[in-house]
Design brief:
This protein is of the alpha/beta class. The protein has helices spanning 14-24, 49-63, 82-95, 111-115, 130-148; strands at 2-8, 32-38, 69-79, 99-103, 119-122.
Length: 155
């Protein structure tokens, strides 16, 4: 199974790339984590946020592989504990499909992308710097995999 992290944001600082890769590289081949970046819209004081979010959603839709199980990361989603995420990861593996984790830009996911999701996950009620989200998601996916395989990392 491949897990695609489809995330709005590109040209990240080196610490973000290093942090994400540190966990993505640890994932086994049978549960590979693959980043697909979506260029964000240019925001200015005169920008239409609705238009920018729609454009980002269109770009995201083009990057989401067909036939995947879609999981939107959204405040309206269900918060999972680490054991619950591990159970979700095991459930995804039994689906026989790849998975796409969908992370919107600073103004969230476009409605069509959110509506296309099979399920929704609330990473936290806290507001994180957007670049940090991809590191946290990668670490949590690795932690969930570790827990499900009785790997010592989870402890």
């Amino acid at each position: 199974m491949q897990i695609f992290l489809v995330s709005v944001g590109n040209k990240m600082p080196g610490w973000v790339t290093q942090g994400y890769q540190a966990y993505a590289r640890r994932m086994p081949r049978e549960c590979e984590l693959v980043l697909k970046e979506v260029a964000p819209g240019k925001r200015s004081k005169n920008s239409s946020i609705e238009r920018l979010v729609t454009e980002e959603g269109d770009k995201m839709a083009a990057k989401i592989p067909t036939g995947v199980h879609r999981v939107a990361l959204d405040l309206s989603g269900r918060p999972w504990s680490t054991p619950e995420l591990a159970a979700a990861l095991n459930r995804w593996q039994t689906l026989g499909k790849n998975v796409a984790l969908l992370v919107g830009g600073p103004d969230g996911l476009a409605e069509p992308v959110l509506a296309s999701a099979n399920e929704s996950w609330c990473l936290s009620n806290l507001t994180f710097p957007h670049p940090l989200v991809r590191i946290v998601v990668a670490e949590q996916i690795y932690r969930a995999w570790s827990l499900s395989r009785n790997h010592p990392y989870h402890r």
